[in-house]
Amino acid sequence: MLLEINSEHPEPRKIQRAVDALNAGELIAYPTDTVYGLGCDLLNKDALERLYQAKNMPRSQPLALVCLDLSDIARYVVVDSAAYRLLRRLLPGPYTFILPATREVPKTIAPKRTQVGIRVPAHAVPRAIAQALGRPLLSTTAGPHGGEPLQWPSDIAEQFPQLSLVLDGGPCGLLPTTVVDLTKDPPQLVRQGAGTVDFLE
């Protein structure tokens, strides 16, 4: 269940193990540039249900799409020129941006298909997974719902026995991403986290 991975140069066979687990509808945990994430396959409805159950959180709680890069993002959200300039400046980085969802986003995630949070972490592991999987991961913070993120992979494995794999990249931080809603004009800060927000001034 715990699998040590190189955070800077993740071993391809370990990334493939994560991808195999996701393709089989299983849940995994992985390090990011902020906190550990819990993830499942974007297209697997049963895995999505299990992710909500594992964290004991309401279905109204939104999940983020962990994408490989900016071109990947454009498949799943509508990005106007102002938003694109901002994303290009700040990503990869410790942010989640809420943007209008495209038809590529499954109804199970955005029932009204209005908006979705997207993220491009400045961390090799989740981006390698998204690249090998060929689509974004559905992600939420690895920690109890409403509680502090868990910093140590062994604690995550213990807290979430539903996970089939925990990619152990050593301890992560305790500050989650900064969440900014770009569907509002001007953009609105939803949660202050690891990323600075001087661009909102």
Report on the architecture of this protein.
The protein has helices at residues 12-23, 45-55, 70-76, 81-90, 124-133, 153-159, and strands spanning 2-4, 27-30, 37-41, 64-66, 95-100, 115-119, 137-141, 163-168, 178-181, 188-191. It has 201 residues and is an alpha/beta fold. The chain has one domain: DHBP synthase (Alpha-Beta Complex). Strands 1-8-2-3-7-4-6-5-9-10 form a ten-stranded mixed sheet, with helices on both faces. The radius of gyration is 16 Å and the shape is globular. It starts with a strand and ends in a 10-residue tail after the last strand.
Question: What features would you highlight for this structure?
Answer:
alpha/beta; DHBP synthase; 28% helix; 10 strands; 6 helices; ten-stranded mixed beta sheet; 201 residues
Record the SSE blueprint.
Blueprint: E1 2-4, H1 12-23, E2 27-30, E3 37-41, H2 45-55, E4 64-66, H3 70-76, H4 81-90, E5 95-100, E6 115-119, H5 124-133, E7 137-141, H6 153-159, E8 163-168, E9 178-181, E10 188-191
Parallel strand pairs: 1-8, 2-8, 4-6, 5-9
Antiparallel strand pairs: 2-3, 3-7, 4-7, 5-6, 9-10
